[in-house]
């Protein structure tokens, strides 16, 4: 469960962002990079994507492979480790498609008892995008995940990212260094909540909502994703209280990861919440994965 921002919902300014493909793989990352773990196949792009985000692509950033659009080189997959040789040690999976595109960061396990986001991120870490770079951290707070607790002994990881200041723990600092290093076009953070945002059904909570950062078209993309979720997963199968809505806009005034993405990085980002109220873990994983996929596609990762 998270505690997204209060009541403002004004969209931020539009910004264009450069493509940063392979920036992590080619730069001297501040984190230890392990050996590659093999190559994987490709998936097909679909033609019906609204693609509301069109980042520029700088040909000079192309890898020294063929620029042919028909190139079918498999994506490269690597991993790196945060907090090596500590109890908080956790893996980040990086899949770099053959075709250039935006870089997306996907995070699960900020709160260790929110299994759906951990599993959804783990599944997404195995995806084989045809375009772009996918950086996935399934178990952000590995100690809390191991204990299946909201907090770890260092407290709640999602209270350690004050805007305009250095994150307050070693794990938070290393995660933030990674994010600034990969320079993502979009950041997605998966959560689940005991309740439903804005509903009298069940306990109070933040579920069934997407909370966008105050940057670019994030709020419109969140609304499109909510509509998609309702059409495909909720309407006709669950009470109307379960309809996915757009939550408050996150803009950097709380010490949470997505607030810092909005406030410091000034990037599109989404904190997603599904509800644990009378839902199965399998359903929550399905919903979270579908929301992630839709948001990634909207930002050009496919
Ligand atoms: Zn949470």
From TrEMBL:
<dbReference type="GO" id="GO:0046872">
    <property type="term" value="F:metal ion binding"/>
</dbReference>
<feature type="region of interest" description="Disordered">
    <location>
        <begin position="1"/>
        <end position="88"/>
    </location>
</feature>
<keyword id="KW-0862">Zinc</keyword>
<dbReference type="Pfam" id="PF24827">
    <property type="entry name" value="AstE_AspA_cat"/>
</dbReference>
<keyword id="KW-0378">Hydrolase</keyword>
<dbReference type="InterPro" id="IPR055438">
    <property type="entry name" value="AstE_AspA_cat"/>
</dbReference>
<feature type="compositionally biased region" description="Low complexity">
    <location>
        <begin position="13"/>
        <end position="27"/>
    </location>
</feature>
<dbReference type="GO" id="GO:0016788">
    <property type="term" value="F:hydrolase activity, acting on ester bonds"/>
</dbReference>
<dbReference type="InterPro" id="IPR006311">
    <property type="entry name" value="TAT_signal"/>
</dbReference>
<keyword id="KW-0479">Metal-binding</keyword>
<feature type="compositionally biased region" description="Acidic residues">
    <location>
        <begin position="1"/>
        <end position="11"/>
    </location>
</feature>
<feature type="domain" description="Succinylglutamate desuccinylase/Aspartoacylase catalytic">
    <location>
        <begin position="100"/>
        <end position="192"/>
    </location>
</feature>
<protein>
    <submittedName>
        <fullName>Succinylglutamate desuccinylase/aspartoacylase family protein</fullName>
    </submittedName>
</protein>
């Amino acid at each position: 469960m998270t505690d997204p921002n209060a009541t403002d919902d004004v969209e931020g300014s539009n910004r264009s962002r450069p493509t940063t493909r392979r920036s992590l793989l080619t730069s001297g990352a501040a984190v230890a990079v392990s050996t590659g773990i093999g190559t994987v196949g490709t998936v097909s792009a679909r033609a019906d994507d609204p693609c509301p985000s069109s980042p520029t692509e700088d040909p000079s950033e192309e890898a020294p492979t063929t620029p042919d659009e028909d190139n079918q080189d498999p994506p490269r997959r690597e991993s790196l480790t945060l907090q090596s040789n500590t109890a908080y040690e956790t893996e980040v999976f990086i899949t770099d498609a053959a075709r250039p595109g935006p870089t997306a960061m996907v995070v699960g396990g900020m709160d260790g008892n929110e299994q759906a986001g951990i599993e959804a991120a783990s599944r997404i870490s195995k995806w084989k995008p045809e375009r772009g770079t996918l950086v996935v951290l399934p178990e952000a707070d590995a100690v809390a995940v191991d204990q299946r607790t909201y907090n770890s002994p260092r407290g709640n990881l999602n209270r350690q990212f004050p805007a305009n200041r250095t994150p307050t723990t070693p794990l938070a600092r290393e995660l933030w260094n990674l994010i600034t290093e990969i320079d993502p076009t979009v950041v997605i953070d998966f959560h689940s909540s005991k309740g439903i945002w804005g509903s009298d059904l069940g306990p109070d909570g933040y579920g069934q909502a997407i909370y966008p950062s105050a940057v670019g078209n994030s709020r419109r993309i969140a609304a499109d994703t909510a509509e998609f979720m309702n059409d495909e997963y909720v309407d006709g199968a669950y009470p109307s209280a379960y309809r996915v809505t757009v939550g408050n806009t996150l803009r950097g005034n709380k010490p949470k990861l997505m607030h810092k993405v909005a406030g410091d990085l000034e990037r599109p980002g989404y904190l997603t919440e599904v509800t644990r109220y009378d839902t199965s873990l399998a359903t929550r994983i399905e919903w979270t994965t579908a929301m992630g996929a839709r948001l990634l596609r909207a930002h050009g990762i496919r």
